[in-house]
Design goal:
The protein is built from eleven helices and two strands. By secondary structure, it is an all-alpha fold. The chain has a domain at about 1-145. The chain has a two-stranded antiparallel ribbon. It is flat and about 55 Å long.
C-alpha cells in the first residue's frame, strides 16, 4: 500500500495511527462492557458476584479495575520500545497495544484523580474529558501538528529571534487560557494555537484563578462567567452522557 507507506511509515506516524485506532476501539468496547456489567448489577443482591463471561474481575476478593491492566500494558510496551526500538511492523503492534493500555487507563481517569470509585457519578465524567483530549491530541499529531505550530525546518538568522519569540508569546497565551480554568483548551492550544487564543480571549470560568483575582470586584463579569459556565457544562454533560453512558449516583466499573 503505497499511500500507507508514504503518509505514515515514511513520516514515522505509523505507530501513532495504530495507537489512535486501537485507543478508540478499546474505549468503545470498554464502555459497552461496563454498561453491560452495570445493567446486570442492578438486578443483583448486594455482595452477589456476577456470573457469566462479562463481569467484574476479582482477585483475592479485591475488585481489579481495568485501569490496572491498562497501566501494566503501557509499562510493558514502554519497556519493549525503549529496549528494542523496532521498525515496521512491530512499531505498529506496539502502537496498537499502547493505545489499548492508554484507553483502559484514561477510561478510569476520574478514579485515580479522586482516589475513589466515581466511575458512574457526575465526577466520573472527567474520564470522558480525558479520553476526548487524548483523541484530539493524537489526531493533531497524526496530521503533523507541532508544538506551538513551529516547524522543524525553520532555519535562517531570522528564525533565531522569531521562533523563540513566537514560542514565548504562545506559551503566555496557553498559560492565560489555563489560568482561566480552560485546561483542555490550553493543552490543545500547544498543538493548535488558535484554540488557546480563543480560550484566552473568552471569559474565565468562575472557579478559576483568573476569576478569583480579577472578577472579585466586578460582579457583572462574575455573573456572566457563572451563566456562561453553566450553559457550557450543560451542553458538555449531554455530550459526555452520549459518549460514556449516563452518570448516576451508583458507582461501579
Amino acid at each position: 500500500m503505497t499511500w500507507y507507506r508514504e503518509w505514515f511509515q515514511e513520516t514515522g506516524r505509523a505507530g501513532l495511527l495504530f495507537m489512535l485506532v486501537f485507543f478508540g476501539l478499546t474505549f468503545v468496547l470498554t464502555r459497552t462492557i461496563t454498561r453491560s456489567i452495570r445493567a446486570k448489577g442492578r438486578g443483583q443482591e448486594p455482595g452477589e458476584v456476577s456470573q457469566g463471561l462479562v463481569k467484574d474481575v476479582h482477585i483475592g476478593g479485591v475488585h481489579i479495575h481495568h485501569q490496572v491492566w491498562g497501566i501494566l500494558v503501557i509499562l510493558i510496551v514502554a519497556m519493549l520500545e525503549f529496549t528494542y526500538q523496532p521498525h515496521s511492523p512491530w512499531v505498529e503492534v506496539l502502537g496498537g497495544l499502547f493505545g489499548i493500555g492508554a484507553a483502559l487507563t484514561l477510561d478510569e481517569f476520574a478514579l485515580w484523580l479522586h482516589m475513589e470509585d466515581v466511575y458512574w457519578t457526575s465526577a466520573g465524567r472527567k474520564s470522558i474529558d480525558a479520553v476526548v483530549v487524548a483523541i484530539v491530541l493524537m489526531c493533531a499529531l497524526l496530521l503533523g501538528s507541532t508544538p506551538f505550530g513551529v516547524s522543524e525546518t525553520a532555519d535562517g538568522p531570522d528564525s533565531l529571534v522569531v521562533v523563540p519569540g513566537l514560542i514565548v508569546v504562545l506559551l503566555v497565551v496557553v498559560l492565560i487560557c489555563i489560568a482561566k480554568g480552560k485546561l483542555v483548551m490550553g493543552l490543545l492550544g500547544i498543538f493548535v494555537p488558535l484554540v488557546a487564543i480563543v480560550g484566552a480571549l473568552r471569559v474565565a470560568r468562575p472557579g478559576s484563578m483568573w476569576a478569583r483575582r480579577r472578577y472579585s470586584t466586578r460582579p457583572a463579569r462574575m455573573a456572566k462567567a457563572v451563566d456562561r459556565d453553566a450553559r457550557h457544562e450543560a451542553r458538555m454533560d449531554r455530550v459526555r452522557d452520549v459518549l460514556g453512558g449516563r452518570a448516576g449516583t451508583d458507582a461501579g466499573g
